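Sequence in, structure out.
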Amino acid sequence: MNSINHKVKKTALGQIVAVVAAIFVAYISFMGLVYLTRGRLELSALVALAIGMAWVLLCFKAQQMKGAESRFASSISKERIAVVALAIVLLAPAFPFLHFFSVADRNRQVTRQFDEALAEIMPMFDEYDSIADKRIASYRKRLRSVKGTQSKNYSKYGFGKHNEGMTDKGLGVMRDNMLKAMTTLLKPAAHDSLRHDAQRWVEKAQAGASTWNVFLLGNANLTAGAIDSWQKTMDQDMRQRLYNEEKADTTGFESAHAALAMEKLNRLTKACAKRSAPPFYAILLLLAAMAMMFFPYWLQSRHSKSWERLRGKKKGPQPDWSVVARRQPTTVPERTTNPEGTATHPNP
């Protein structure tokens, strides 16, 4: 009973070691695939899961066939197939596994590129505010050219005929109302909310910037999408105009900082997908994990008859040559012939 319990414990220990190794390699390979596919999480997860399951299934199959207690010839054939297949499948995650560590080895460079791209986001809003302020100032200058009853171009600046003859004070009130309308048009309350959301986005993205964060490229892709959305919103606001504003002032908004941020994010994605030599410790980790996958097979004991089949001995009982050697040959009596020519047998 103690011998059986010991074998069960060894088998369970080997299986636990193999499963831990498979999970570790599958996860690292998943992260390497994320970088190779430039952030495609779903595809990377499916491939890594398939690799991990193949490792475990082939490992357990080889162990099961080695410990078979019947049909030894068939079990040995299946065992050999499983071992060879396991050795081949063990090489499948080698490239993404090593690629992740080559990216992680450049963690400072990668995170610096990400931070530099994030640093271009808030200046984009400052750039918009600067253009909006210049446009408001230009509009204010045009409105101030109207000087009470001295002006003959009321309609040109948005003042109706009924406003003719108004005092400078009355025109000043109307001018201030128009300036408020222009400011609300170019800098609505939603614009301040948009800036606040962008600031929070940058802070959260900077806090999780690391090559060990599997969502790094996902965050980079989402950030690129957010920058594009923010710029389109500000472009729409900038294209709006009041009825008495010159069309030359209502051009769209194309941010130089947004373009620079997108360029840096694109370089970051390419840098993570670029192939480079892995560090030596990554190769050692991969070899150790491969060796751990054979633990259940090595710890599994083999049936004595399976050993005989494995060594080439034929199945079936073998003759006991010691017994055969002791057997004596049977003596056949000789025939004699009488004078009449008929054969006779000696008396017993």
